[in-house]
Amino acid sequence: MSKKIFAVAASLMLAASFVSANPIPVRGIVEGFYGAPWTHAQRLDFIDFAAAHRLNAYIYAPKDDPFHRSKWREPYPAAQLDQLRQLIDASARNGIDFIFAVSPGLDLQYSDEDYAALIAKLNAVRSLGCNRFAIFFDDIDDLNGAAQAALLNRVQKDFVETNGLKPLITVPTEYYLDKMIDDGATKKYTADFAAALDKNILVLFTGKGVVVPSLTADQLATADRIYNRKLGVWWNYPVNDYLQQKLALGPIEGLPSELPAVFFNPMSAFELSKISLATGADFALEPSNYDPQASWERAIDAQFGALSTEMKLFADHSQHMQNDWANCGRADAQKLRAEFDMFFNGEDRADVINKILVETADAVTKLKIDLPPQVFNECREQLEQLERLMEADQIALEIVKYERLGAPTDQLRQILEGKLWSIDQHKEKALISEDCAYRFIKQVLDAD
Q1: CATH 1.20.58.460 residue ranges in the chain?
Q2: Does 139 qualify as catalytic in the annotation?
Q3: CB 283 within 8 A of CB 252
């Protein structure tokens, strides 16, 4: 799949899909995840992808780039500055705002010395042609809202406005509603920060929580009232740094249509992030007419061509992301789950279910052989796990069929327990279809 063919196909699809658009003004991605950052080649590739999908902004903020966060005071080495220059130039050619971010909050002292170090870092990137910047205070312990706001205001006035740059962007330390509010009242940090912050600075937040299924208009209005301005959104899908065993391969869902800015946080799995990012671009271009399912299918068709049928079957099993504090993405394999439910309610769905299981297993086999190496390397563990699940589901299906006929199933149950043991042994590396295929196996084994 060459980049040129992909870009032409994507552009044609977009031209056909967006006849009259009412786009979100600032729409892009924030490379803001923990873990291995994207490579320079991947970032350049993303600029082409963003242009083809009419995204217009990219925030450079990889948490594990030491010069962005832990060593923010230190200047970038010459080789990395040259890479930043290439990204800035490529972005400018494609009409994309390259936004350089610094996260100084781990050890910021609010001194003149630290302010000078921060401005030196920003000026070094400005000299490369960058005209928009961000300063982030997320995921730190410091709750001095007044001091943070004062620093940002100083940067906005003395650096941004003096140099004729676009307004500063920030993320506060309390960057989601459940942290901003306590018992209906705005907490001190947020109140201090919001009251003091220059009105020209764009604030990003993540919704009610860090990773949430939706952001309602009422929740957005509450956040806007707290800050007395329109807030932009940092949307944590398809990012998976909190659940790296699972890939977020579903469409963007659950966002309100009226936003000044939206940034989608991707996975370190660069190629597979493009599925959700393409749907996010569709949403941001015409939010009032966005169809998540249709957008998801278009994205996979454009990106995987002759393998699109197989990729849809695989991706359908890897959409929902959830742990004890995160919950986002639609349920895995909803059609198959509905068939399982009908089957357990006594309906004769065995043949339909078996057909789906076989088709999915065949799809996995084909993907393992034919996927380009750069894609296969990002999902090998999950493909192999889905293969195990499909095999186990077929055995579980046979157990229920035999039990309904009154036939013994002890031997089959032993085989299925062995399959489940193997699946569980691989869960530290690969999670997939937890809402559906894994659930079916457990239901059968627990139904003694």
Answers
A1: 334-445
A2: yes
A3: yes
